[in-house]
Design goal:
15 helices, alpha/beta, globular, Rossmann fold, single chain
Amino acid sequence: MSLNETPQGERVHIALFGRRNVGKSSLINTLTGQEVSIVSAVKGTTTDPVRKAMELLPLGPVMIFDTPGLDDEGALGNLRMQRTREVLNKTDVALLVLEAEHNLGACEQEILELVRAKKIPLVVVYNKIDLYMPSAETMRQVAAAVKAPLLAVSSATGQGMEDLKLTMAKIVPDDNDSLRIVSDLLQPLDVVVLVTPIDSAAPKGRLILPQQQTARDILEAGALAFVTRETELLATLGALKRPPRLVITDSQAFAKVSAETPRDVPLTSFSILFARYKGDIGVLAQGARAVDRLKDGDRVLIAEGCTHHRQCDDIGTVKIPRWLRERTSGKELSLENTSGMKYPRDLSKYSLIIHCGACMLNRREMHYRIAQAQAAGVPIVNYGIFIAHVTGILERCLEPFAASDPARRADS
């Protein structure tokens, strides 16, 4: 991701589903005006989900997924189909692509059921109308069956593409427009101190993504953002004419920052802000309690939404295991790590899931992961809430949200 790109997790995720050779790849290329997917008359050319980040007016920043055919065959085809179903967990808008030859068969019905179960906005698209235009009666019957917008387009000629873009723009969930990282907690000219350690894990020449996004959100509130390292926090607080409205720190510096921030100054972390922004802060805060119930032999999943180069003191593989041993008095735990799209389907074997802040995941996928944990009866907590808990300051770090928004109050 370049420094000026919209982060992946902030883009509208659009996924195309349909049979092999129905024209999904061609439709994406025509829709975007780019060669995003390989196009071939050979069935099964798209073997794995292909994604492309881009701007698509009038929707704005989007992530488009091209998926393998729903009718893919054999053992390998079943694996590809599983990857296709996994894409649904992050899909904000689904396009089901048809052609007149097949209409709604078993493959299409399967994806329709999954889309409906996950309450994903849907558009059904008849492609290749330059070759064959469905009858008005067929269109009427299909529209009644799918209960979703139904459009006729041609990837070859571009016919109907503008209508498709406008239709998608109308059905995109507007939840994300009302969600804020921190600006809903602030008033214009409030002072916010951002504590951003510069260590071996910090990207050279820039801040990590949650810090960048939080600073931008503070600016949009008309508040004043002061950025400092933890080593200069006391000097920063002393230089301010009035106490800050909020101190936000990297969770890994909680112990030092909590000790040096006056008790009457609200304190939280970037990761805890993202627990509220991307997930469910109440559920994740409750998950912290499970840390103190762990016993010998329990399995703990440490999950991250992205892949990155592991440092010698990596948070997921080194620091969190160390904090777990300290908090549980050295209990013998079985720890597993996953990253990126790798997330177990069966979570029932775990006693606890410790998840990252999800800055690279969209809100839908993080909510899916939380719901999956709840369905399996497994407590889930995120990095920031976990670190606040083992540091002994979780209640303090949740106070800014309870005071400003009772409806979102976390049961700490």
